[in-house]
Specification:
With 315 residues, the chain is mostly helical. Helices cover 74% and strands 3% of the residues.
């Protein structure tokens, strides 16, 4: 007789941000506001950078796709999370859970490398301004964005397939507010060495290469800015990458906080709080970071709100 396969569960239970009944409704409204601000901000960036003729440079092309990624990532997580605040049975179907994990991985990996692409774009703009439109041509922009999405999709297929290749038995309570790698593998009743290794190598590789691109790009940017003799020139050069530097610092700072904690202090509850930040809070903050510190975006928003028809006619 063939060995009996350990049973697959048909559904999981998501513990959520908190399991305290008195916090469910307040948390629902807090995260509803966060999601609505995220949707409004990122959709606003997508619309402005699409319709305004002054925002048709490579920098705003990449910003548009960062907004698409941020909106996609929060939309994969937030709706299910919001529903679970209001229901007593916080279940998610097995394949629904797998789909959510895959969607999350597509967007989070795409965001990691989109930030690296944007750092490279700022490097070329500041260090080689005369060759900027040649080096970062429309074709190159499309290629970089396509590769970012494609790599995110491939990573999602490989990692989520490994995570759901193990057996899940009686325990089905996920100590998280969405289906994520680590809390899922903690429930497995079979050997998790291979999927844990794949998850670790994937995360470490992605962080190493993307951060290397960002650090090398900004090292050269700082050197170029220091060579500029006039204080006005240095200020102008710095202002072109200040928003991106802020977004990168917040995003990578959160990820490094998660992955570089001592094992003795590490817990799934800590992971949950960090996950709230990079899946929901950062996508809400990015449109503010890139618009409040950017004269072009503020001017485009003013033109759009004053006479939106002119923006569409200029395309």
């Amino acid at each position: 007789m063939a060995p009996r396969n350990l049973s697959h569960v048909t559904e999981f239970i998501l513990v959520g941000v908190s399991d305290l009944p008195e916090l469910q409704v307040p948390l629902f409204f807090v995260f509803l506001i966060i999601y609505l601000l995220t949707a409004a901000g990122n959709l606003g960036i997508i619309i402005l950078t699409t319709v305004d003729s002054c925002l048709q440079t490579p920098m705003y092309f990449f910003l548009r796709h960062l907004a698409v990624i941020n909106f996609g990532n929060s939309t994969v997580i937030a709706p299910k999370m919001l529903v679970n605040f209001l229901v007593s049975k916080k279940t998610t179907l097995y394949y629904e859970c797998a789909t959510q994990l895959g969607g999350f991985l597509v967007f989070i990996v795409a965001e990691i490398f989109m930030l690296a692409v944007m750092a490279y774009d700022r490097y070329v703009a500041i260090c080689n301004p005369l060759l900027y439109m040649v080096v970062v041509s429309r074709r190159v922009c499309l290629l970089l964005v396509s590769l970012t999405y494609f790599y995110g999709f491939c990573t999602a297929i490989v990692v989520s397939s490994c995570v759901f290749s193990v057996s899940y038995c009686s325990s089905k309570k996920i100590n998280h507010f969405y289906c994520d790698n680590v809390p899922l593998l903690a429930l497995s009743c079979s050997d998790t060495y291979l999927p844990e290794t794949v998850v670790f190598i994937s995360a470490a590789t992605n962080l190493f290469f993307s951060m290397s691109i960002v650090l090398v790009s900004y090292f050269n940017i700082v050197l170029s800015i220091l060579r500029i003799r006039s204080s006005e020139g240095r200020k102008k050069a710095f202002s072109t990458c200040a928003s991106h530097m802020m977004a990168v610092t917040v995003f990578y700072g959160t990820l490094l906080f998660m992955y570089l904690q001592p094992q003795t202090n590490h817990s799934l509850d800590t992971d949950k709080m960090a996950s709230v930040f990079y899946t929901l809070v950062i996508p809400m903050l990015n449109p503010m970071i890139y618009s409040l510190r950017n004269k072009d975006v503020k001017a485009a928003l003013k033109r759009f709100t004053t006479n939106p028809c002119d923006s569409f006619k200029s395309l």
